Structures are given as C-alpha cells and as structure tokens.
C-alpha cells in the first residue's frame, strides 16, 4: 500500500522502511507513526522478509516527535491518548531482526526509535541526543530507560539533562551504536549487514533476538536458563540440523526457515 510519510521497499529478504518527511527532518508525527506501524505489520507478515532496516535521510534519521503537533496538547489529551509509548512501541515489538540505519540527526523520539531497533548502525555524520529538556519536557518513548541501559547512567544523565548531542564515534565508544560506517555508500554497507542476517534461519533469528532481549528483563541466572532452553529448542528445527551438516560437509547451508 502507498504511504505518505514513509517509503517501503523489499530488497530480496530485506525490508527497508525510509522515514520520508524531509521538510520536517522526519519529525515523528502521528500519521507517520501510524504508517510505520502498518508497514512493520506488513513486513512481519511477509514470509519472504527476514530482516528490516529502518532509515531516514542523509540529514536526519528523525529529529524527534513532532513538536508542532505536540505543543497544544493538554495533560488530559496525552493521558487519554497514552501519547507516544502506546503506538511507538511497535518498533520494539517487531519479532524479525531490525536495524536502525542512522545518518544525521537522531534526536529525542528519533534516538528513542533507533534504540527500539535491535541494533544501530551509524554513518559518521550521525548525531544522537535527547534534547527534550530544552522544550520543558523529558523523553517519552523510552529515552531515559533504553539509553541508560545502553550507555550507563553518567552519559544518559548527561544527554538527558544537558540536551547536548554526541557524535557517531562517541556513540560507538559508549555502546549505543554497533558500527560506524562512512557516509558515502552508507546504505549499501548497511544492506550488506542486513543481507547477512537475512541469509540465516528466521526461526533461529527470532529466538536469538528473544534471548538477547531477555537480558534486559530478568536476572542473569534466569536469562542463562532461558538461553539454554532456547538453544535446546533450536535442536527441534530442520535448519539447526542443516546448518551443522553443511558445516561438516564444507558447503553453504540451505535454510528452509523451519
Ligand atoms: N518537530 C517538528 N518540526 C521539526 C522538528 C521536530 N522535532 N525538528 C525539526 N523540525 C522542522 C523545523 O521546524 C523546520 O521547519 P520549518 O522549515 O517549517 O521552520 C525544519 O524541520 C528544519 O529544521 P531546522 O530549520 O531547525 O534545521 P536545522 O538544521 O537548523 O536544525 C535541528 C536541526 C538541530 C535538528 C533542529 O531542527 C532541532 O533542534 N529540532 C528539534 C529537536 C528536538 O527537540 N527533538 C525532540 C522532540 S520532543 C520528543 O522527541 C519527545 C519524545 O521523547 C518522544
């Protein structure tokens, strides 16, 4: 289906969603978030897709929630709508692997949406920040929580309380970002990572992602037990057998995603 504020492409087994409100630096207005939810649901349901890339423009991944849309809302409005978290969490709930490909600004809700993805790959032009404090408010889509878990208290406090931005290299050192890539040919390099991920068995990708995410929600002992049982569970899959047989026979595995 055609969207107004995003573009959706299927490149082999990779779904690419591009935030596309260039005049507003991809500010995340409600219609855009609705479209993003629909697009992700379609890609989730598409059996041919095994990895999803979420990206923006060269100038901005997204400059945050749409301030112009938000500015007239009352407390009762945002409470009634459960503004931000209710709808936005679709990105975090995606069951296929997701990559945020960030060039330019990832601020406020932009940084928060990037952090909802499984990993962030950054162009060297990327800038991350939670500048809500400058607007008289605080992050509302997980910024204080996911950022703190990702980079630790001191840098999270610095970003949230000062409103300052960090560059891609700083984000890499802090663990917010998995890789920094040259701005030139950035999306081609991201696609190589996405295609590698998409070449693996989808049920194994799903369970692997669940196991990593478990680390955020539980104790080490429970997490390790969850991981071990999930690892055992892969032995019920044809693809686990195929992967090990292919290794022993020195050939490429032919995963059936079963
Ligand atoms: N919402 C609405 N419009 C925005 C926007 C936003 N978050 N960010 C940028 N825009 C608009 C600007 O208003 C401007 O529109 P006009 O041309 O109609 O004036 C256009 O995008 C281009 O922006 P600038 O002229 O400001 O571009 P710049 O290069 O000079 O500055 C910037 C870039 C530093 C990112 C600056 O635009 C900026 O500070 N944006 C706001 C960032 C921000 O505060 N984000 C947090 C939002 S609140 C939030 O996200 C809450 C949450 O936790 C979910």
Automatic annotation (TrEMBL):
One GO biological process term: fatty acid beta-oxidation
CDD domains reported in the protein's UniProt record: crotonase-like
UniProt GO molecular function: enoyl-CoA hydratase activity
Highest taxon, organism lineage: Bacteria
Reaction it catalyzes: a 4-saturated-(3S)-3-hydroxyacyl-CoA = a (3E)-enoyl-CoA + H2O; a (3S)-3-hydroxyacyl-CoA = a (2E)-enoyl-CoA + H2O
Entry EC number(s): 4.2.1.17
Keywords for the protein's UniProt record, in alphabetical order: Fatty acid metabolism, Lipid metabolism, Lyase
Gene3D superfamilies hit by this protein: 2-enoyl-CoA Hydratase, Chain A, domain 1, Lyase 2-enoyl-coa Hydratase, Chain A, domain 2
Keyword match Lipid metabolism: yes
The keyword Lyase belongs to this UniProt entry's keyword annotation: yes
Protein family (similarity comment): Belongs to the enoyl-CoA hydratase/isomerase family.
Function statement: Could possibly oxidize fatty acids using specific components.
Protein name as catalogued: enoyl-CoA hydratase
Organism, as annotated: Tistlia consotensis USBA 355
């Amino acid at each position: 289906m055609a969207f107004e504020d995003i573009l959706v492409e299927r490149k082999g087994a990779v779904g690419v969603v591009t935030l596309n409100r260039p005049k507003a630096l991809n500010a995340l207005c409600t219609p855009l978030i609705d479209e993003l939810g629909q697009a992700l649901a379609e890609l989730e349901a598409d059996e041919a897709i095994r990895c999803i890339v979420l990206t923006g423009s060269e100038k901005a991944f997204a400059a945050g929630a749409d301030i112009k849309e938000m500015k007239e809302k009352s407390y009762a409005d945002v409470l009634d709508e459960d503004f931000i978290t209710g709808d936005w969490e679709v990105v975090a709930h995606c069951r296929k692997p997701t990559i945020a490909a960030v060039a330019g600004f990832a601020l406020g809700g932009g940084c928060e949406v990037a952090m909802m993805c499984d990993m962030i790959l950054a162009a060297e032009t990327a800038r991350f920040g939670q500048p809500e404090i400058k607007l008289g408010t605080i992050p509302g889509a997980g910024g204080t929580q996911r950022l703190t878990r990702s980079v630790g208290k001191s840098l999270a406090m610095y970003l949230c309380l000062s409103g300052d931005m960090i560059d891609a290299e700083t984000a890499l050192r802090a663990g917010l970002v998995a890789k920094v890539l040259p701005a030139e040919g950035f999306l081609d390099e991201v696609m190589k990572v996405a295609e590698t991920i998409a070449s693996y068995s989808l049920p194994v990708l799903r369970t692997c992602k669940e196991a990593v995410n478990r680390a955020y929600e539980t104790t080490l002992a429970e997490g390790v037990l969850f991981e071990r049982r999930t690892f055992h569970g892969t032995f019920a899959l044809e693809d686990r057998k195929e992967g090990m047989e292919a290794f022993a026979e020195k050939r490429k595995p032919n995963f059936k995603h079963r």
